[in-house]
Specification:
With 68 residues, the chain is mainly alpha-helical. It is globular, with a radius of gyration of 11 Å. The mean pLDDT is 84. Helix 1 packs antiparallel against helix 4 and helix 2 runs antiparallel to helix 3. The longest helix is centred in the N-terminal third of the chain and has 13 residues. The relative contact order is 0.22. It has a two-stranded antiparallel sheet with strand order 1-2. The chain is built from 4 helices and 2 strands.
């Protein structure tokens, strides 16, 4: 299991606090940065999270698991 799969699910509620869903990738990443998410986590998400619209935290996690 990689870094994101270990760390993100446990912190997703705190990390995505204040996100108004549906949200696009850039909106999510901006909120993560404002919420003080560690730079390495944001960097990995920037690389691995597909472009698109997300309808909730579970949608974000599912996209990462599928590697879509």
């Amino acid at each position: 299991m990689d870094f994101l799969r270990k760390r993100l699910p446990a912190q997703v509620g705190r990390y995505l606090e204040g996100v108004k869903f549906p949200a696009r990738k850039d909106e999510l990443l901006g909120r993560l940065e404002r919420n003080g998410v560690p730079g390495p986590v944001v960097g990995q998400l920037r690389k691995r999270l597909p472009e698109g619209e997300y309808h909730g935290p579970q949608d974000v996690l599912s996209a990462l698991r599928r590697g879509r």
